[in-house]
Amino acid sequence: MFNYEDLIFKIKELNPIDSVISEYVKLKKSGKSLKGLCPFHSEKTPSFFVNTQGGYFYCFGCGKGGDVITFIQYIENVDFKDAVEILARKSGIDVKNYINNQDRGIASIIFEVNRFSCEVYQNNLKKNQNVLSYLEKRGLSRDDISLFMLGYADGKRTLLTKINEKKMRIDDFIKAGLVVK
After folding, report:
1. Residue 102: which residues within 8 A CB-CB, separation 6 or more?
2. How many angstroms from the chain centroid is the CA of residue 146?
3. What is the pLDDT of residues 88-116, one digit of tens each?
4. In the 8-state DSSP scheme, what is residue 150?
5. 4-97: what CATH class?
6. Distance CA 28, CA 93 (A)
7. Domain-wise residue ranges, the chain
8. Architecture of domain 101-175 in CATH?
9. CB 104 within 8 A of CB 130
10. Closest listed residue to residue 149, CA positions, set 128, 168, 123
11. How far, CA to CA in Å, does 110 sit from each of 21, 81, 113, 116, 122?
């Protein structure tokens, strides 16, 4: 039995990001990167870039970015585990050799609550000009902030408020270590 990290590594190794994305987007060489029209929003000028060395994509138009698994999540409108399974099937990997069903369910929940928390904190950062100015003084551009998915926790229980608004299970956030009782 292999572990989950081995599975993710193998999937990324067997599914180069440029090969996967080029099935959905016409990519052209642009310096060290590839560029194309973003599949997630309407545009006339390419703002969607793929960095093959780093194994990530980023759209400067809509701000979506991530690795090959994240791309499949967005383009196929599936959760993390389904994206992993799609890429595993595509490359002939038997997921059952890597993870049991209970672990898969827990991993999926933890991923989703982390994704949700990341979005909350990213949105919070976008609304806070003082923190944005501080980060820019530290040498981070707006593109860097988006690319690395930086966020800001303001200490005002923003995450808890959003969890309650969306009627999500607080226990899932506790299990993920994002919230304490």
Report:
1. none
2. 11
3. 999 998 877 665 555 556 777 888 888 88
4. -
5. alpha beta
6. 29
7. 4-97, 101-175
8. Alpha-Beta Complex (3.90)
9. no
10. 123
11. 26, 11, 5, 10, 18
